[in-house]
Amino acid sequence: MNQLDQEAGELLESPYPLPMESLLSTIILLPVNSPLAQQKRDLLQHCSFQFTDALSLKLSQISSSSHYPRIRRKSLKLLYDLLTDPAVPQISLMTLNGLKSPLLSSFRPKTGQPMSQILPEIVAIVASRIFSDSDQLWEELLDYVYVSITGSNVTQEVQEMGFRVLSNLPENLLNRLMPGFDFLWAKILHRLRDSSDLDSWAAAIQAASRFLKILPYFLGADRLGMAMSTAVNSTHNLATKVDPRNATVTQRFLEFITQMVTKTRPRLLFDRLNYVLESMLMIAESSVATVIREGAIRVLKKIDESNRRIMSRQLERLDRVNLDGFFCSLMRVLVGAANVEKNKSTVLAKYFMDRLSTMHGGKIFARHVRNQIGVFAVAQEWQKRHAGLVTICATADACEEVMRNHVEELAIIVVDGLKDPHRQVRCAATDAIKALSVNLAPTLQEHYHRRILLLLTEMLKEKKDTVWGKAIDAIRFFSNGCTPDNLEPYLPRLVEALLAHLKNGNTTLQWGVLAALGVLASSSENRFDIYYRHTMDAIKLILFGVANASTKLLHAHCLGCISYIAIVVGKDTFANDADEVMGALISLQGFLLETDHMVKVSIFQVLVKLCRLLGDDFLIYVDDLMPSLIQSAQTKIYKEVNRSCYLVYLAMPVLLRLAISQEVILEDVQEELIYFITALVRNLEVSGRVLTNIHVKFVVDGILKILNENSSENEIQEAEGFEIGPQEETRNRGVDHTVNAKIVVFLFNYFVQQSQEPASKYCSIFLPFLLRACKDHDPRVRQQAVRGIGTCAEFGINEFKPFAEEAAKSLDSVIRHPGTSSSNNPTAHVIAVSSLGRICGSYFKSINAPQVVADGDNLATKETVNRMVVQLVQSSKP
């Protein structure tokens, strides 16, 4: 036996409490770094892992018998650790039963000495481990709980302990208290009405919450309603008192109210929901603590989230008085929350303002908001002026139609707000301008551009970056609805002020400046030309500055701004900067492959703009853009696929030329190009019908140009047979004829199938090539050719008729050829039969169909004949 085991035996086997009390007092009284205290802690830890049961029994005895409060509390804390620490061995069931008696003895109060707050939790843990899966009862504990709560002569401390034990009891033991539930519930409500002792009050809340969680239906509407009224009244009383402890307890009450509404059947409290609304708003208005105001409105938010349908119905039923009162209360909440920026109460109040405005529409503004905003706008307190402007923001979307009848009134309020001496009011005014710039455009911009633009420009000269950011955002939104004539007189000052902030190094602010410059340029049109050089030089300083992970996103914003400006000034003006800008775009590829897809979409928007602007000059950059385009074309995100595919369509001619060129290129490069084009075309299925008539013509012209350039015996065999001679084979070395023909036909098929109507009118142009390809020596080319003929027959009805007879003969020859037998090339055979059947069915009068069927004995199988007959029968029906 080692020394620690020997010391543990002496400590735990002693019939007297003194050794354990001495150890605990040493740990309590001596400094943490004391060697003796560390020695005693080591001994305790050894006992915890090697003699867990014996130590837990000894600690429980000390907790009930020691005359020293600090030792009792320390022993209970150590016992709690033994019960809850997963690293400590589990206490046996026999030992847990042995803990019951000393723990109950610990509830007997010592004269003038408070009981430990951790004791109820320990008792609950022991009870749950012994009785959770058992029909047995801890009768002594249940008696203690009932008597400590309902007894006539018990002290508040004893009753508080009873509440705390009850709130932690396992469900099966709690159910055993149901015969005396009415007495228990009455005592809980009585304690909730009396907030003289906050600890006892908080314990009563916990007990009520426990009943609510376990027995919501048993409580019923009457009991719940009484509990609700009691809780709300008590919460309101606490909320108006200046006491730091009140805030914590009141928060518990608010959580209890939320639980009552969200955890029970909605119908139980439906009739009292209006009372809850009014009460929570009253608490939010009158509370002296921010956390209580937020908590009250959060209760309403939780109710709305958990019972949105019922809450919506209740909000819709609000009469004029209650509706006006609700909105007025929300505005007062905004007033109270104004002193703290980014206050949660503001967010919650705006949420309900938007909800009410959406439900009740313009009458909210016309009947109440308009007058209240006007009163608040001229109030002496800056908080009210601020609240009025926030209310405009919160109601602008839903009340747009009515607000348009009061543009002048609202414009005066926001203009005065921009001139307000208080910074937060000015910031709120910029937010209001953002909202009204969208909902009241272009009337607001047409009549008030002078005053608003001048004031926003002045705000850019202030010394607070939050003001700058707000003003820059407001300029962006407001300018978007302005005409070039509106903006022209103010462009010099606006551009100068924005560029000054572009150079200040604040990344977030720079993002805003770049967005504002882009909108300003677009709205100014050709009036922005004279600012191009100065603006472009400033942006390029950032774009070509230090490049690292933290600046890549800023560079992407720079490119977005440049694309807007380039479109405005035109290709000739932008030409000198185009190569540098495209170089920057290409350098961002590595970042694009890793970044968020929304950033990719914005970059592709830039590429599309520049592609349109530069035209043929853009094609020289396509090779370098391939990696990011390939990846994005295969993603599952619609917007990204759409943009990347659209961009490649614009560049398709050069890609096709590279893919099927006769020039000798590395095999892996050619395979990548082929894979790239086919993958992009397949993604039409994901991105939808993104091709317009112009795009289709552009692509078709590119394919035709390649066909004309490569139209030779090397590409398409015009002979009747399928064999190619040795001389021709020698001439074809270095050129993958099969890939060339197959890719062209494959692309054409996909374009027609996916774009259908826009591309179908080009069928007649490609049919001669397809008919010749039916005689190609390579079965894969023939397979694509017969598929293409079937596609033309399906989508190019009018264009196909003149070729129907010849197409039927070509398909017939393919079906008859030994190289297309069902055993050697079943896919080509099935496609050819299907295409021929489609021609016979849809173009019966344009071909000699009976002759085709008469020759059926020579076709590959009876199945082929059957298909043909079915098609003919269907087509002959009236």
TrEMBL record:
Per the record, the GO terms for biological process are: protein import into nucleus
According to the UniProt record, one GO cellular component term is: cytoplasm
Localization terms from the record: Cytoplasm
Q: Which UniProt keywords apply?
A: Cytoplasm, Protein transport, Repeat, Transport
The UniProt entry, under SUPFAM superfamilies, shows: ARM repeat (SSF48371)
The UniProt entry lists the main location of this chain as cytoplasm
Name assigned to this protein:
Condensin complex subunit 1 C-terminal domain-containing protein
The superkingdom listed in its UniProt entry is Eukaryota
